[in-house]
Amino acid sequence: PTLPPASVHVDRDKMATRVQFENNNEVGVFSRLTNGYCLVGIGGSENFYSVFESELADHIPVIHTSIAGTRIIGRMCVGNSKGLLLPNTTTDQEMLHIRNSLPEKVVVQRVEERLSALGNCICTNDYVALTHTDLDRETEEIVADVLGVEVFRQTIAGNVLVGSYCVLTNQGGMVHPRTSVEDQDELSSLLQVPIVAGTVNRGSDVIAAGLTCNDWSAFCGLDTTSTEISVIESIFKLRNARPSTIVTEMRSSLIDAMQQ
């Protein structure tokens, strides 16, 4: 008897999905996920692309693209469900392809900015954006206009690259593990969502490189531990978990580790 084809589908509203890009765990470098669309770096193995497709294609477009001839699209662009900002090194062809593939309501704009890796310098959801402290005033205005958000210049655990050390959705946010409790509280009241400090990929503090998510799904590197995944699923409300369950789960997993 022939077996049904294997499916990578994971129940929506349930899980963070582990995935690799050509044996690389930094999935947030090669993808940009929002509530309205998903961009995936070109030339990766078809498997990487199909994991995103199986999870998202019923709900939002999944677009194969490069930006400025590179595959590190997650670090080069920034966007939310209302808009997408691209660096000025983006070619006309890439811009046209992205614009044609995105939903009509999404505004696409190129930005003349010295700090051209926009994904490292800006972190946003559909309402609020955190930006690098040295970002141009003009760029700040474009972020506010195109993405329709309130903009705050901020650092995270002393790092100016807020886009690298923070992942933000409309449900919650995850920041660098060395972020003080005071800073977490300040960010939480600024962004009006719960914030937690954590890691991905078995202890990596570059959160946004190893994790990409929207309001109902998340993708992280294959090395991400079950404890890290439980924190991710809880803060981003991916399985209706309450933040208090994080502490219990982490405590029990730490006790298990000590007993071994």
The value of Rg in angstroms is 18 Å
- The overall pLDDT average reads 87
Assign the structural class, choosing from mainly alpha, mainly beta, alpha/beta, alpha+beta, or little secondary structure. Answer: alpha/beta
What is the straight-line distance between the termini?
Answer: 43 Å
Biggest beta sheet attributes: 3 strands, mixed
Taken from the alpha-carbon principal axes, the silhouette is globular
Count of beta strands = 15
Q: What fraction, in percent, of the residue positions are helical?
A: 25-40%
Flag low-confidence runs. Answer: 2-13, 241-245
Number of helices: 10
Strand order of the largest sheet: 1-15-14
Strand residue content: 15-25%
User: What is the ordering of alpha helices and beta strands?
Assistant: EEEHEHEEHEHEEHEHEEHEHEEHH
What does this molecule look like?
Strands 1-15-14 form a 3-stranded mixed beta sheet. The protein contains 10 helices and 15 strands. With 260 residues, the chain is an alpha/beta fold.
Sequence-ordered SSE layout with sheet pairings:
Blueprint: E1 16-19, E2 31-33, E3 38-41, H1 46-56, E4 62-65, H2 73-76, E5 78-79, E6 83-87, H3 92-101, E7 107-111, H4 118-121, E8 122-124, E9 128-131, H5 137-147, E10 150-153, H6 162-165, E11 166-168, E12 173-175, H7 181-191, E13 195-197, H8 207-210, E14 211-213, E15 218-221, H9 226-235, H10 243-259
Parallel strand pairs: 1-15, 3-4, 6-7, 9-10, 12-13
Antiparallel strand pairs: 2-3, 5-6, 8-9, 11-12, 14-15
Helix pairs in contact: 9-10
